[in-house]
Amino acid sequence: MANTLRPYLNCVRSSLEAAMCLQNFASQEVERHNKPEVEAANNSELLMNRLVVSRNANERVLIESSINSMRISIKIKQSDEIESILCKKFTRFMTQRAEQFFIMRRKAIEDYDISFLITNFHTEAFLKHKLTDFIVQFMQDVDKEINEQKLSVNARARIVAQSYLKEYQ
What does the alpha-carbon distance between residue 48 and residue 34 come to, in Å, rounded to a whole number? Predict the structure, then answer.
């Protein structure tokens, strides 16, 4: 893990661990229903304060928590046009396969690139620290993957430009 990324990811990890205190809570409107309150937002008493962990203006995490669910939205670093194109393609690829990731949402929250929804059923089925580790590892891997793809695109562009310019020498 890069030294500049470590404090940011540690802050995200500790914030997720603190916010992941979910319990079973049936719907107050419909009998025998258990909807994620962070998604339904029917009762403001059941919603906790939103938390934004920001590394800079272009890279941040929004943690929205309620009594029985939490939504984690991630804004991936996009410092230039190549990174924004790579990020858009990568998130589209991931969201098309959202059902394979049990906690990933198909559609991200506005102004964010990718979102996860964790309910009390997920915390009962999986270990809480493993869910936190998955999200932090996901953030680290996405950052690494986009940087590697950017280097690969730049290397290809350099080779193409050199072969194109050889004809004019």
Answer: 18
